[in-house]
Structures are given as C-alpha cells and as structure tokens.
What we know:
Blueprint: E1 3-7, H1 12-28, E2 38-42, E3 47-52, H2 55-72, E4 86-88, E5 91-97, H3 104-116, E6 121-126, E7 129-134, H4 137-149, E8 157-162
Antiparallel strand pairs: 1-7, 1-8, 2-3, 3-5, 4-5, 6-7
Helix pairs in contact: 1-2
Amino acid sequence: MPSFDIVSKVDPQTLDNAVNVTKKEIVNRFDFKDSPVQIDLNKKDMKIDLEAESDMKIKQITDVLISRSIKQGLDPLAFDLNKDAYPSGKTVKKEVPVRNGLKQEDAKKLVKLIKDSNLKVQVQIMDDLVRVTGKKIDDLQSVIQLCKNANLNFPMQYINMRS
C-alpha cells in the first residue's frame, strides 16, 4: 500500500549555515559597529542564543536570521519567537528555540485534520512522525495538499513516499 511520513525536522548543517551567514551580515552592518553582539547556536539543545545592547537590535538580528534561514531553505515556523528578550547587565539576551521533531499535540492536530477531511487513508502517530497510508497515491497527494493549505503553525516535511 502506498504511504508517506509527515515529519518536522530541521537539518542541523543548514541551520548552522544560516546562523553563520547571519553572523557575517551583522558584523558587516554599519548600525552594529562597535556594539556587543553575540549569536551562538547550541546544536545539542537546538536553540540560538542572541545577545545585543538593546531590544531593537535583538529584533533586527532575528529579522536577519529569519530572512537568511529562508534563503537557506528553512521554514520560518521552525523558530519559536514567543519568548521575550530579557536584560542581562548592559546587554539584552534572547533564546530562540528551534522546533525539531513533531510534538504529540501537533501530531494529534494533524491526525484530526486528516480524519475530518473524509479521505480514504489511515493515519497513525509513530514517535515524532505521522504515517499516512492509502490505497491510491491520489489520496496521499490530497492529504499533502490539505496539510500544506492548513495553517497549523509548525513546519512539515513529507518524506518516504512509497508506492
């Protein structure tokens, strides 16, 4: 039976490239001359630590980070920008967690969306991925289109398409 998997993963090397490009651009910008800026990627915890002298500069860094990540092929929904920046001495710090893996509640939303569509497919949650199987490939393609059009606020990739 044809099947495919829905996952939410971020390639660590692509993320590292996006962070490095952001660092280079920020260092070369005139408005960041002589100001303490630090951008660190913690690959183990999958988070980016930002540090600058003001909240406005933190927002500029996040804008550059998102635009460079999009150019690298990363989904901007992979960055959790909900946390606010906090003061730390003379600087302002912000942690930007990177969503990696499908959370259980996100997987449940996805399964509910697919089941409510009344397509003839079976859906099952397997750890951090959702497997969709069906008799026709057209049904699977309809599921992919449904997921792309739904506004679920987390990045999704479709892998392991088997016929």
